[in-house]
């Protein structure tokens, strides 16, 4: 299973764009990159997933360079409600595949 | 669509007692996971089921933890006897084909 490295914590202000980078140097050819968000007292929630280049949905963008050894989750114009822990996971999507959650990045959005 | 249900939401027990947690995954989801999340850490996979078969239980402390998924739907996780270090949130998640995992709210266990 590919290991990931993320910053332990980040601070931002409301309205700013936040970029969280994840390193995954030993990512395998068939691995996808997935990001989850977790609020206190809740289970993690899927945010976005990608394989290469750029993926965008209604809440975030995911940038993956050509070598796929890192990825960046971009949250546009964060609000106080985006304060949470963000986890980067890598793994393939097939029966029997599971993933390792690291400690995640604790994002604090300040007013 | 109903989400993953877990019960109880909170449980307080004394060490050496036993406890059981229940999970009802999203209908039709073949894969079910149990995670342990200690305060300040990411979730740690305890066991993964594919239908009613175990795919991975390599990190399950089998001397005290057990889990089953009868008929490939609901699942229970049991701890007997509990230790102080078992205090954590126990999360259940399910997925239809091994993709996005849908998590339940978790059960917060406190062992005194």
By secondary-structure content and strand pairing, the structural class of chain A works out as: mainly beta
Distance between the termini of chain A: 38 Å
Strand content of chain B: over 45%
* Low confidence ranges of chain B: none
SSE succession of chain A? EEEEEEEEE
Rg of chain B, rounded, reads: 13 Å
Number of β-strand runs of chain B: 11
The strand line-up of the biggest sheet of chain A is: 1-9-8-3-4
Number of helices of chain B: 0
Radius of gyration of chain A: 13 Å
Shape type of chain B = globular
Q: What's the number of extended β-strand segments of chain A?
A: 9
Average pLDDT, all residues of chain A: 91
Helix share, percent of chain A: under 10%
Q: What is the number of helical segments of chain A per DSSP (H or I, 4+ residues)?
A: 0
Order of helices and strands of chain B: EEEEEEEEEEE
The proportion of strand residues of chain A reads over 45%
**Helix residue percentage of chain B:** under 10%
Question: What do you see in this structure?
Answer:
Chain A is an all-beta fold and 111 residues long. Chain A contains no helices and nine strands. Chain A has strands at 9-13, 18-23, 32-38, 45-50, 53-56, 61-64, 70-75, 84-91, 105-110. Chain A has a five-stranded mixed beta sheet, with no helix packed on it. The N and C termini of chain A lie far apart (38 Å). The mean pLDDT of chain A is 91. Chain B is mainly β and 112 residues long. In chain B, strands 2, 4, 5, 6, 9, 10 and 11 form a seven-stranded mixed beta sheet that branches. A four-stranded antiparallel beta sheet of chain B has the order 1-3-8-7, with no helix packed on it. Chain B is globular and about 40 Å long. The mean pLDDT of chain B is 93. The chains are: A mainly beta (111), B mainly beta (112).
């Amino acid at each position: 299973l590919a290991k990931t490295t993320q910053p332990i914590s980040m601070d931002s202000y409301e309205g700013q764009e936040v970029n969280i980078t994840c390193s995954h140097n030993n990512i395998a050819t068939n691995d996808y990159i997935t990001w989850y968000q977790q609020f206190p007292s809740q289970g993690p929630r899927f945010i976005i997933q990608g394989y290469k280049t750029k993926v965008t949905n209604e809440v975030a963008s995911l940038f993956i360079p050509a070598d796929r050894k890192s990825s960046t989750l971009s949250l546009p114009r964060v609000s106080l409600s985006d304060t949470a822990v963000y986890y980067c996971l890598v793994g393939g999507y097939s029966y029997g595949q599971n993933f390792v959650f690291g400690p995640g990045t604790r994002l604090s959005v300040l007013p | 669509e109903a989400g993953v249900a877990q019960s109880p939401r909170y449980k307080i027990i004394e060490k050496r007692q036993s406890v059981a947690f229940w999970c009802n995954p999203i209908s039709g989801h073949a894969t079910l996971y149990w995670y342990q999340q200690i305060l300040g850490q990411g979730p740690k996979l305890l066991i993964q089921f594919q239908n009613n078969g175990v795919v991975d239980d390599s990190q399950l402390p089998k001397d005290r933890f057990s889990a089953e998924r009868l008929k490939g739907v609901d699942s229970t996780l049991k701890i007997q006897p509990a230790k102080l270090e078992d205090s954590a949130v126990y999360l259940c998640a399910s997925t239809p084909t091994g993709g996005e995992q849908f998590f339940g709210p978790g059960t917060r266990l406190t062992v005194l």
